[in-house]
From TrEMBL:
<dbReference type="GO" id="GO:0006508">
    <property type="term" value="P:proteolysis"/>
</dbReference>
<dbReference type="Pfam" id="PF01432">
    <property type="entry name" value="Peptidase_M3"/>
</dbReference>
<keyword id="KW-0378">Hydrolase</keyword>
<dbReference type="InterPro" id="IPR045090">
    <property type="entry name" value="Pept_M3A_M3B"/>
</dbReference>
<dbReference type="GO" id="GO:0046872">
    <property type="term" value="F:metal ion binding"/>
</dbReference>
<feature type="domain" description="Peptidase M3A/M3B catalytic">
    <location>
        <begin position="306"/>
        <end position="538"/>
    </location>
</feature>
<dbReference type="GO" id="GO:0004222">
    <property type="term" value="F:metalloendopeptidase activity"/>
</dbReference>
<dbReference type="GO" id="GO:0006518">
    <property type="term" value="P:peptide metabolic process"/>
</dbReference>
<protein>
    <submittedName>
        <fullName>M3 family oligoendopeptidase</fullName>
    </submittedName>
</protein>
<keyword id="KW-0862">Zinc</keyword>
<comment type="similarity">
    <text>Belongs to the peptidase M3 family.</text>
</comment>
<keyword id="KW-0645">Protease</keyword>
<dbReference type="InterPro" id="IPR001567">
    <property type="entry name" value="Pept_M3A_M3B_dom"/>
</dbReference>
<feature type="domain" description="Peptidase M3A/M3B catalytic">
    <location>
        <begin position="164"/>
        <end position="272"/>
    </location>
</feature>
<dbReference type="InterPro" id="IPR011976">
    <property type="entry name" value="Pept_M3B_oligopep-rel"/>
</dbReference>
<keyword id="KW-0479">Metal-binding</keyword>
<keyword id="KW-0482">Metalloprotease</keyword>
Length: 560
């Protein structure tokens, strides 16, 4: 029986309880009982992760709560100490002479992950890790504090979305001006925060024996089957195949709308009739979502019902709530939780189906033997989320306003293609920043504009000065909080669009491939999971060719 979310409580760890719990693992290893030691190690980490997930979720739900902030600060302080215990045990396990027994019990991929993990921590960087968490939380709280006034209303950054997509071009322009006025006001603070994070991470990397933060960043992302060279080649594929197609789509939109030129505030206004809106308010969307998932194969329907009934959703935007959306989980109870900010735009549907994909994967793989297998590495996890966005297409009549399903599908496809150049730009920017950590704030801004012109040559900020000088990246939280994460979305989108392509010819086959991928969780590396689902690795030459060709045909346009 899954407990209701409001009733969830987990033991609050202390330094003493961590020492005792992980010490019990060591005692079992000393006694020569490897299997029992691994079981206890897994149990300790599940309970710790469940508590930490709840702490960070509750802070995100109300960033103004002093109690939640204090508990988050406590978790930030305790985190590195827990990591120290985990790494000590992993090092001992990896040094065990009986490697074959370890692989047999823990699994080859888990052992491979641990080999990466032990290179990312040392007690000498404990205080730096704590400071990193504190700075990231400072960024989250700063953006959550934003109050933006547009068209006579005051909203937070998440609540600004309807104005950014307004059919009136002047309103969109006003909304963007208001948004970037906030970033301009806090620009020096944001520059200082990021400079401190880059310096801190570079110092951690050098302490651990790396020449720069980049190899440490890849290891912290637990990437075991590819590196920066493969990622650079994928960025080039996007630049070659997708950027020209998106440029052509935008030029056709400009001509269709009769604009003399395309401005930044026009990019997200995709449909001449106005971007389709959700079918109704929160309650109707939840009811319709249940119908949609009940119609789809597999366990989506029963799982969603369990989430709703248990209260494992927080989707309404409100003051003090952190922006964005995410999925977290509580491995002690086998249930994930979806956090989002509905704002009455089409994005509500995309974010919801995206996070539902993460949640479903975690639920499907909840019975895998190791906590290390409950989630795949990030790029594989994003296939599960983005894949569900596309696989729900046949049911969009339920989720969007009357008569707008085809328009929504077209908009989603255009949005997905348009995202790829932006996504690889975010990644390329981070590679350049960490290769030259001594950059000044002005140099970072210029680096962003140079790369933006490369991957998105159409982008024109007009009279909005702050992003025009290179400040657009400061609104992308991943750059601050999860370095080198963002490429994962683009790699996954390459694979998710292959699922879309397959579903157009064989919907049951595509759903079966998706179900299998979710069930395998994190039991294998990214490229192995991709191959097992019958998909082409993004690192293969021409991996984007078929989906770009199909998308061009569906949209009635060819790349220039």
């Amino acid at each position: 029986m899954i407990p209701a979310f409001p009733s969830l409580t987990f033991p609050r760890p202390t330094e003493t309880s961590l020492t005792d719990g992980f010490g019990a693992v060591v005692a079992l290893l000393d006694a020569g009982d490897l299997r029992a030691a691994l079981e206890r190690f897994d149990r300790e980490r599940r309970t710790l992760d469940s508590w930490a997930s709840l702490v960070y979720l509750q802070f995100s739900q109300d960033t103004t709560s002093k109690a939640s902030k204090a508990e988050r600060d406590y978790a930030d302080k305790l985190g590195p100490k827990a990591t120290a215990h985990e790494v000590t045990i992993k090092k001992r396990l990896l040094a065990d002479a009986d490697r074959a027994a370890l692989v047999e019990i823990a699994g080859a991929h888990v052992v491979q992950l641990w080999e990466r993990d032990v290179t990312t921590f040392d007690s000498r960087i404990e205080s730096a890790l704590e400071e990193e968490s504190r700075l990231c939380s400072e960024y989250t709280a700063l953006l959550a504090s934003a109050r933006i006034t547009v068209a006579g209303e005051t909203v937070n950054l998440s609540g600004l979305a309807p104005w950014l997509e307004n059919a009136d071009r002047r309103v969109r322009h006003e909304a963007e001006q208001a948004r970037w006025a906030f970033f301009a006001e806090h620009g020096d603070t944001l520059d200082t925060l990021y400079a401190r994070l880059v310096t801190l991470r570079t110092e951690m990397a050098r302490t651990l024996g790396f020449g720069s933060y980049m190899p440490l960043g890849y290891r912290r992302m637990r990437r075991v089957d590819y590196g920066p060279d493969q990622v650079a080649r994928f960025r080039e594929e996007v630049l070659t195949h997708v950027t020209p197609l998106v440029a052509r789509l935008l030029e056709e939109r400009r001509a269709e709308m009769g604009w003399d030129h395309l401005c930044y505030w026009d990019e997200n206004f995709i449909d001449p009739k106005g971007n389709p809106k959700p079918a109704g308010g929160y309650d109707l969307l939840i009811e319709r979502a249940q119908t949609m998932f009940d119609r789809m194969s597999g366990g989506l329907g029963p799982f969603f019902s369990e989430m709703v009934n248990g209260g494992y959703l927080d989707l309404k935007n409100r003051d003090g709530k952190a922006g964005g959306g995410f999925c977290t989980a509580f491995p002690d109870v086998g249930m994930p939780f979806i956090f989002a900010n509905f704002n009455g735009t089409h994005g509500d549907i995309s974010v919801f189906t995206h996070e539902m994909g993460h949640a479903y994967q975690n639920w499907r793989s909840r019975d895998l033997p190791s906590i290390d297998e409950l989630w795949p590495t990030m790029e594989a996890a994003e296939i599960d989320s983005m894949g569900l966005e596309f696989l729900t297409w046949p049911h969009m009549e339920l989720m969007v306003e009357d008569g707008a399903a085809d328009r929504f599908r077209r908009m989603h496809l255009i949005g997905s293609l348009s995202f790829l150049p932006y996504g690889v730009c975010v990644d390329h920017f981070q590679h350049e920043v960490y290769a030259r950590p001594e950059m000044t704030p002005a140099e970072r801004h210029e680096t962003w504009r140079r790369l933006e012109r490369l991957y998105m040559p159409w982008r024109d900020y007009g009279d909005i000065a702050y992003p025009a000088k290179g400040g657009r990246w400061q609104a992308q939280g991943h750059i601050y909080k999860s370095p080198f994460y963002y490429i994962d979305y683009t790699l996954a989108l390459c694979c998710a669009m292959q699922l879309w392509l397959k579903s157009r010819r064989d919907e049951p086959g595509a759903m079966a491939a998706y179900e299998g991928l979710c069930a395998r969780g994190g039991s294998a590396p990214f490229t192995t999971l991709v191959a097992g689902a019958g998909l082409v690795s993004p690192f293969e030459p021409g991996a984007l060719a078929d989906v770009v060709r199909e998308a061009s045909g569906v949209l009635g346009v060819t790349a220039a």
